[in-house]
# Entry
Amino acid sequence: MRISIEEKKAEAIERMKALGIFPQTIQQFKNEDCISISEPPFGAFYWAEGQDLERIRQFEAENDALVYVVIRSYTTIGKLDSYLFVSDYAEEWEVDRKNIREVGDGLLAYVYNHDAPECSEMGYIGIAPTDAAGLRRTW
# Structure
């Protein structure tokens, strides 16, 4: 059974609140379907648009997922965008919620590598809040 977009969106909003994301960013997601990118170094949020938004929408369509925030990182292996998302598998949601509550456990994310797209992959990442009520990747 497929999960409706409305159910995924409600779950995403709860996750965003639990992560301590800037309230206006949550409202923009809720009311306007805006996906934001948390940019280093402070984690300030910017709307995803253009090719960034196209890649997000393609990921969502291919994976029956809903991306609720992107964490951008600049690393020695390239510019990385980590997509935090709600999957189509409700039975996995409790694990995701637990991992948000216990931040050290990491969150499942799709990581897009801008410099080497063929190295993009799904995996667990560490995250932490920023002073600007955004998120940063820690590992």
In short: The mean pLDDT is 94. Residues 5-137 form one domain. The first strand starts at residue 36 and ends at 39.
